[in-house]
Design a protein that fits this description.
With 215 residues, the protein is of the alpha/beta class. The chain folds into 2 domains: 3-92 and 189-214, D-Maltodextrin-Binding Protein, domain 2 (3-Layer(aba) Sandwich); 95-187, 3-Layer(aba) Sandwich (D-Maltodextrin-Binding Protein, domain 2), CATH 3.40.190. The chain is built from 7 helices and 9 strands. The chain has helices spanning 3-15, 30-44, 57-65, 125-133, 146-154, 170-175, 198-214; strands at residues 20-24, 49-53, 71-75, 86-88, 94-103, 117-121, 139-143, 160-164, 179-194. Strands 3, 4, 5, 6, 7, 8 and 9 form a 7-stranded mixed beta sheet that branches. α2 (30-44) links the parallel β1 and β2 (49-53). The longest helix is centred in the C-terminal third of the chain and has 17 residues, at 198-214. The protein is elongated, with a radius of gyration of 19 Å.
Length: 215
């Protein structure tokens, strides 16, 4: 069967059974909102709707594995074998950098080699991969929410925080000109679905591929 005809049949079959799927709720940050709009657009082409649930980052993996939600909106490629009940759609939907944000007011001479007290959010898989692959010279304190990180660095409770570069916008840089960034790594974000939704994953993948071409 020609590939184009196969794709049309898959989309038609999946679209014939419109569903409402539940995912972890993206933050209000413009970067995460752009991902939300992109995925809502992709699912709408299959006739599906998306609803959201507020779930802490670290717990969201367990919720998705247990099918309490239908997947994960956007995550980095996991360590092999770490997610048994999820399908990763093989199309990157966004890119980002993992950065160490240093408060030079607290530690004027700090860099990635000599900083000591750093915080990050629990469940930040991109950082976990860096920790697994490298011998970091500093300790990392993990907190449950991203907002806590920025309060910690602003109140001089840590010398630095590790976050996605997209969270460090022009307004934040203008407010804190003495905060500097060091890039620790680069990652792609991917969409994940429960294995029970494999027909939807098959139909959604070429739609995301076409979106990537059109960007």
């Amino acid at each position: 069967m020609p590939q184009t005809l196969f794709f049309i049949l898959v989309v038609f079959t999946v679209s014939s059974y419109a569903e409402t799927l539940i995912f972890d709720k993206p933050s209000s940050h413009p970067y995460h909102q752009s991902i939300q709009r992109k995925m809502e657009n992709a699912y709408s082409q299959l006739g599906h709707k998306i609803e959201y649930r507020n779930i802490p980052l670290k717990r969201s993996y367990a919720e998705a594995e247990a099918e309490k939600v239908d997947g994960l909106m956007a995550r980095v490629k996991p360590k092999k074998g770490s997610l048994q009940n999820l399908i990763m759609l093989p199309v990157p939907i966004r890119k980002f950098e993992v950065v160490l944000l240093i408060n030079t007011d607290t530690c004027p001479t700090c860099n990635a080699d000599n900083i000591e007290y750093v915080a990050s959010v629990s469940g930040f898989a991109a950082l976990e991969k860096i920790i697994d692959n490298n011998s970091l010279s500093f300790d990392v304190i993990f907190v449950p929410e991203r907002d806590i990180l920025f309060r910690m660095i602003a109140n001089n409770r840590v010398q630095g925080i590790i976050v996605s570069d997209v969270l460090i916008d022009a307004e934040l840089r203008a407010k804190h000109p003495n905060w500097k960034t060091v890039v620790l790594g680069h990652e792609n974000l991917y969409h994940f679905l429960n294995k029970k939704h494999s027909p939807i994953a098959d139909a959604l993948t070429p739609i995301l591929q076409q979106m990537l071409v059109d960007e």
